[in-house]
Specification:
It contains four helices and 20 strands. The radius of gyration is 19 Å and the shape is globular. With 269 residues, the protein is mainly beta. Strands 1, 13, 14, 15, 16, 17, 18, 19 and 20 form a nine-stranded antiparallel beta sheet that branches. A six-stranded antiparallel beta sheet has the order 2-3-4-11-6-9, with no helix packed on it. Strand 3 and strand 4 form a beta hairpin. The longest helix is centred in the middle third of the chain and has 10 residues. It has two domains: 120 residues, Jelly Rolls (Sandwich), CATH 2.60.120.10; 79 residues, Sandwich (Jelly Rolls). The two termini are 28 Å apart.
Length: 269
């Protein structure tokens, strides 16, 4: 089949939310993550995140460290902001460079949250977080996260919540330099906007209001994420909050206007 609808898997989190609309129904328990899954391995992991509290201050390892210590790929990721309430912010690296000794000390005392570079965000923003980026996601956000297929997280600080910290490993992999901030979208000739592109994934955004042929960027399959609107993908109906695996050219027929993300693993150079 040229397209396959991926299955959403709802994950409870202490920092999650119950209002997942308009992408999913209101929940009875606090859902923090919705993973899009398939029986077959996927090239990338796509999630929706919903926050009512701060996530831990954390960092993810790169490939070499993760393979050696976790038997896993590393975790480079990005976020596209779907909704931002009030003073919604994401912490990205530090306001100034820290030594390893200082990083450990402020992680242990909790001062780290005040040294992070808290960036105000709004719907439509994109952020690239390569492995090694110390980060924290604030409350009041709905995000689409795109990442390597990995679930390795090292916590540095968790605001007193009784969860394990991983300071030794975090010290090994953390980048203590400042982060450049939000990604700048780049227009492409076919009307898409490239949000982020790295060796692990390229992610683009499009607003589509007429029937279009959906051609793959290369030989690798793509994941199409529906943010807004309805329509048909190769004669299969799509709705907001869905993700589809596309492995050959198809026809996309929006009913009205649809807002979509496409993400894929770029061809090796």
């Amino acid at each position: 089949m040229p397209v396959q609808k991926l299955t959403p898997s709802f994950r409870e989190k202490v920092w999650g939310a119950t209002d997942l609309t308009p992408w999913f129904p209101v929940q009875q328990t606090k859902i923090g993550e919705v993973w899009f899954e398939s029986e077959a391995p996927l090239p990338l992991l796509v999630k929706f995140l919903f926050t009512s509290e701060r996530l831990s201050v954390q960092v993810h390892p790169g490939d070499d460290y993760a393979r050696k210590h976790e038997n896993s790929p590393g975790k480079t990721e990005m976020w596209h902001v779907l909704r931002a309430e009030g003073d919604a912010r994401i912490a990205l690296g530090f306001r100034e460079r820290l030594s390893r000794e200082t990083l450990r000390r402020v992680s242990e005392t909790g001062e780290i949250e005040h040294l992070l570079n808290w960036v105000p965000v709004e719907a439509g923003d994109s952020i690239y977080a390569p492995a090694g980026t110390v980060h924290a996601i604030g409350p009041g956000l709905a995000l689409c996260e795109i990442q390597q297929v990995s679930d390795i997280t090292y916590r540095l600080h968790d605001y007193g919540r009784p969860r394990e910290l991983h300071l030794n490993k975090a010290m090994d992999v953390a980048n203590t330099e400042p982060h450049p901030g939000k990604a700048v979208p780049r227009p492409l000739p076919d009307g898409f906007f490239r949000l982020v592109c790295c060796e692990y994934f390229c992610t683009e955004k499009a607003v589509v209001s007429t029937e279009v042929p959906w051609r793959l960027r290369g030989s690798n399959p793509e994941i199409l994420v529906v943010l807004e609107g309805t329509g048909y993908l190769e004669n299969q109906a799509f709705d907001p909050g869905e993700a589809w695996l596309v492995d050959e050219p198809v026809v996309l027929q929006p009913q009205g206007t649809a807002v979509l993300l496409r993400t894929y693993v770029p061809a090796a150079v």
